[in-house]
Amino acid sequence: MPATALPGDGAGFVEWVRPHVPAMARLAARLAVGVDRDDVVQESLARAWMKRHQYDGERGTASAWLLAITADQARKATRRLRPVAELEDHDAAEARPDVEARVDVDQALTALSARQRLAVDCYYFADLSIADTAAVMGCSEGTVKSTLSDARARLRSLLEVSE
Q1: 89 found inside a domain
Q2: pTM over 0.85
Q3: Residues 103 and 77 in one domain
Q4: Which of 11, 116, 136, 157 would you label with 52, given CA atoms 20 to 30 Å apart?
Q5: Dihedral sign (CA 57, 24, 47, 115)
Q6: Which residues form the RNA polymerase sigma factor 70 region 4 type domain (predicted)?
Q7: How confident is the model at residue 163 (pLDDT cuts 50, 70, 90)?
């Protein structure tokens, strides 16, 4: 099978996407907080199946193509979220220092621009290369490097971390 073609049958497609599903799930969980990541991955796989004829292996890796679809589906799922009613004070969970440290990082990540968050999520949380992150973001590798640098600088200032 040429590098530009995707398996046309269901069993071949399943085998083709299977190695990429864990990265898709990690990216979905990072980008679509409050949404069931499995739903996002399922929607992404359905979209990939419908668009399988558009995949071109010469334009990027299978991983980058599938993760770009996942990022798009995560954005769509997040937009569909409706605000949930706030918990009353008596329902608040007891504070835990080990969780609070993680919450601070999560809160700092929300202060980044959408483009910076996508770059950080792809590169650091989905463990993509700079090239694959660029393919997911639809930009050059230099833009990814610059975006990651800006994001790290912003996070340093938000978290008061010195080098």
Answers
A1: no
A2: no
A3: no
A4: 116
A5: negative
A6: 104-155
A7: very low
